[in-house]
């Protein structure tokens, strides 16, 4: 991907200039600086959407949720941010146990 | 038994006085007659500190596009406030290097602190806070009070950890029962003793009860939320097993969309290993 305009940070400092060919390292750096959108040159590719989301074994899911509930014992899961964090925690545990 | 957070800090061998290089650098920065060269001289005189600062400047924490190879270069791009903060962080890490035991592993403690720091900085960047790196350092230091209690009264920590398991209660609540104050208050007392900015003192002191932060509610809310995220991520541990409860009003103050949580989680994940390597290892 080639940048079609300069990328600046929130202080107005130029991080990368037009024409730079983006690498993984650039993308990591941009994310660290909180940049979420950039303009690139080139053709638009159609995103391939996966046909199905792989199913999780219900037993593994139940275990991951039970473990997370122990840690989140003092959290109020009716609060949307805590529910979100709980779900992230469960996903993370599922990935780790693969 | 130490009757107050200030007392335990003042009696601590490790933290009763601010790090010397920090104080020297602060004096130079505050002296209008001093120059960048004077600063570079002081810092270059400490080889370990110089090496660490260069490593930090070149890490993903800053993400500068060019390699930083000299202290003078680092000073010109870091800014004096950031520099002081980083000297503070590295000095504190250094002081507590050898303190661990089976009870608190220093490496695990700092890993949790680093995770909190990255989360806090990510929130600060999103909110376009000035000097987002300050929040990294605040995250790094938010639980320092627990190491201080451990240094001076290890039996208290041992008993508190046992009770956490038996009674299934948050560790910081048990600290408060046993001592009359918790590690957050001790951390705040450290900031005060070292004459650090009032914002740092309040943020650390109230990171578990952010609504009590009268002067710096937003900064405190950032660390409060970052600590919760870091604990949920289980990256290292300060022995706090349970994810601390969220003060919803503090969350609302930050005006973060819910979707930002997975972005923050992702950022901590991406930057964690590199940042741990930068700060903890040679």
What do these coordinates show?
The complex is a heterodimer of chains A (98) and B (282). Chain A is mainly alpha-helical and 98 residues long. Chain A is 41% helix and 9% strand. Chain A has helices spanning 24-32, 58-71, 80-96, and strands at 2-3, 7-8, 14-16, 40-41. A two-stranded antiparallel sheet of chain A has the order 1-4. In chain A, helix 2 (58-71) packs across helix 3 (80-96). Mean pLDDT of chain A is 79; it is low at 46-53. Chain B is an all-alpha fold and 282 residues long. Chain B contains 16 helices and no strands. The longest helix of chain B is centred in the last third of the chain and has 22 residues, at 259-280. Chain B is globular. At the A-B interface, helix 1 and helix 3 of A face helix 7, helix 14 and helix 16 of B.
Largest sheet, strands/sense/barrel of chain A = 2 strands, antiparallel
How many alpha or pi helices of chain A?
3
- The sequence of SSEs of chain B as H and E is HHHHHHHHHHHHHHHH
Low-confidence stretches of chain B: none
Question: How far apart, in Å, are the first and last alpha carbons of chain B?
Answer: 37 Å
SSE sequence of chain A, one letter per element:
EEEHEHH
What low-confidence regions of chain A span 5 or more consecutive residues with pLDDT below 50?
A: 46-53
How many helical elements of chain B?
A: 16
Q: Which chain pair has the greatest contact?
A: A-B, 26 and 34 residues
Q: What's the helical proportion of residues of chain A?
A: 40-55%
User: What percentage of the residues of chain B does DSSP assign to strands (E)?
Assistant: under 5%
Summarize the structure.
The complex is a heterodimer of chains A (98) and B (282). With 98 residues, chain A is mainly alpha-helical. Chain A contains three helices and four strands.
Secondary structure topology:
The complex is a heterodimer of chains A (98) and B (282).
Chain A: E1 2-3, E2 7-8, E3 14-16, H1 24-32, E4 40-41, H2 58-71, H3 80-96
Antiparallel strand pairs in A: 1-4, 2-3
Helix pairs in contact in A: 2-3
Chain B: H1 5-10, H2 20-30, H3 36-44, H4 47-57, H5 71-78, H6 80-95, H7 106-126, H8 133-141, H9 144-152, H10 154-167, H11 171-179, H12 183-193, H13 198-205, H14 217-233, H15 248-254, H16 259-280
Helix pairs in contact in B: 2-3, 2-6, 3-5, 4-6, 6-8, 7-8, 7-14, 7-16, 9-10, 9-12, 10-11, 12-13, 13-14, 14-15
């Amino acid at each position: 991907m080639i940048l079609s305009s300069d990328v600046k940070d929130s202080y107005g400092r130029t991080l990368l200039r037009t024409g730079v060919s983006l690498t993984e390292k650039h993308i990591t750096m941009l994310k660290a600086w909180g940049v979420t959108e950039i303009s690139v040159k080139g053709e638009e590719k159609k995103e391939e959407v996966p046909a199905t989301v792989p199913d999780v074994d219900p037993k593994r899911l139940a275990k991951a949720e039970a473990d997370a509930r122990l840690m989140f014992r003092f959290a109020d899961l009716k609060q949307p941010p805590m529910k979100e964090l709980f779900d992230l925690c469960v996903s993370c545990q599922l990935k780790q146990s693969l | 038994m130490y009757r107050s957070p200030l007392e335990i800090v003042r009696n601590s061998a490790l933290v009763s006085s601010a790090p010397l290089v920090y104080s020297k650098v602060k004096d130079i920065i505050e002296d209008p007659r001093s120059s960048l060269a004077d600063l570079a001289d002081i810092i270059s005189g400490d080889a370990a500190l110089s090496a660490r600062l260069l490593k930090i400047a070149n890490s993903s924490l800053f993400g500068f596009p060019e390699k930083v190879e000299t202290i003078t270069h680092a000073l010109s791009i870091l800014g004096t406030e950031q520099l002081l903060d980083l000297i503070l962080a590295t000095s504190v890490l250094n002081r507590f290097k050898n303190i661990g035991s089976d009870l608190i592993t220093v490496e695990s403690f700092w890993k949790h602190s680093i995770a909190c720091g990255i989360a806090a900085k990510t929130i600060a960047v999103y909110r376009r806070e000035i000097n987002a790196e300050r929040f990294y350092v605040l995250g790094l230091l938010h639980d320092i009070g627990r190491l201080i209690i451990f240094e001076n009264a290890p039996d208290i920590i041992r008993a508190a950890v046992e009770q956490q398991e038996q009674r299934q209660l948050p560790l910081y609540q048990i600290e408060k029962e046993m001592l009359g104050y918790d590690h957050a208050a001790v951390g705040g007392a450290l900031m005060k003793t070292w004459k650090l900015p009032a914002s740092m003192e309040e943020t650390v002191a109230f990171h578990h009860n952010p609504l009590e932060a009268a002067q710096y509610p937003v900064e405190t809310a950032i660390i409060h939320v970052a600590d919760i995220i870091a604990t949920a991520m289980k990256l290292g541990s300060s022995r706090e097993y349970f994810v601390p409860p969220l003060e919803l009003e503090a969350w609302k103050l930050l005006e973060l969309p819910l979707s930002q949580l997975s972005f923050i989680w992702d950022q901590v994940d991406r930057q964690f290993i590199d940042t741990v390597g930068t700060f903890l290892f040679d």
